[in-house]
Fold this protein.
Amino acid sequence: MAILLLLFLLACSVNGDSFIGVNIGTDITNMPSPTEIVALLKAQSIQHVRLYDADRTMLLTLANTGIRVTVSVPNDLLLGIGQSNATAANWVAHNIVAHVPATNITAIAVGSEVLTALPNAAPVLVNALQYIQSALVAANLDQQIKVSTPHSSSVIIDSFPPSQAFFNRTWDHVMVPLLKFLQSTGSYLMLNVYPYYDYMQSDGSIPLDYALFRPLPPNKEAVDANTMLHYTNVFDAVVDAAYFAMSYLNFTNIPVVVTESGWPSKGDSSEPDATTDNANTYNSNLIRHVLNNSGTPKHPRIPVSTYIYELYNEDLRPGPASEKNWGLFDANGAPVYTLHLTGAGTVFANDTTNQTFCVAKGSADSKMLQAALDWACGPGKVDCSPLREGQECHEPDNVVAHATYAFNAYYQQMDKSTGTCDFKGVAFVTTTNPSHGSCVFPGSGGKNGTSSNGTALAPSNTSTTSGCLSQHYYNGGSLISSVILGALLLSAVVL
């Protein structure tokens, strides 16, 4: 397992190589705390994240983790920053300078899909980038932090064949100075690439396998007749369309970073291909495709680093069901779907290493902890004798330590079943062994406790309005997904 995690970490962080990052949205009823989010990122060995704002608490929590962070200027701040150099400098001072170098901020995304989502701000977009760049120069941060703005791929007209693609001419007065800015600052074009939407809007002309990176027979591959380049997937074709569109405007040395890409795991009746299997396939193959550094047919040696959309399902997003179901994880930290690895059977989105533990939250109300401890040592049928005075787990003699022992013993004897590490929101699963001194916790050394014959589950609150559900298994489902991501690197067979 350690080797898999190391391989994934190295593949994501070697200079000059492609990396996989994740977007972190916040339209969630029970939004995990920054501490919980960072714990999940670390458990997954995720080294690159994109935030949709510059939340101070989140940036402070990311400090000293080494995780590379792209922060964003939200669209609602764009007009103010684009019209005032002083406003831009103030934003950089409060949201960037105040956090570096402890927080490893590497890029600023100015707005999101401004040309298509907020066209009235388009006239000040380049000004906003220039003002922020000037503030970075003044703070001597311009070499380590790049400035750009994410575009929807819909700004590209006639994306196939890629060699005939060009940007919507309506935006030439913005795109030309924008590309000059990116070129002069050594930055990159940020592009959101969604083969799911290309497939859905194609009226059947795009095969599902082509959208999902599934292998196609040579006679089914798309061929650009002008260049004779073969395209085996939509993702590469859209990225190359952006390269050709830039070259049409005489810009040939600006790399592309894909700031959003993914596939929804659930949809409405009108979205039959938004399924867990397809989301599983797309994201698995996307990870493999990006990390093999193959580039695209037009630029086979230029990496296309990509941020997966997204870390969590966002239940508060408006629109069809698919809009709420792009996440790799639910808000409680449990993986949304299981990744199937060709040649390796099925890896389930729970613990298969026997090295997860249930512990009490140190910040929980002591009365709630005591009540849960009493339940575990009573109806829960946990042997709490090691907690008695003079026994190996009596010290430290406080409710958090004793509850941690009891919660974990219950969790292990119930075979780590779903719902057995919650205790009304005062417990969570961790991969850190809580054993100390002579006090050896059940589950240590890969040994599970014996299953109880009882059918009782640890008391949990399943109300979606209580805020407790969001703490379920926050770290519990995450360890195996690191193994999943690592194993993806070792699998040479495309799903």
Observations:
- Residues 1-15, 339-354, 446-495 have pLDDT under 50 and may be disordered.
- Residues 288 and 488 are 7 Å apart (CA to CA).
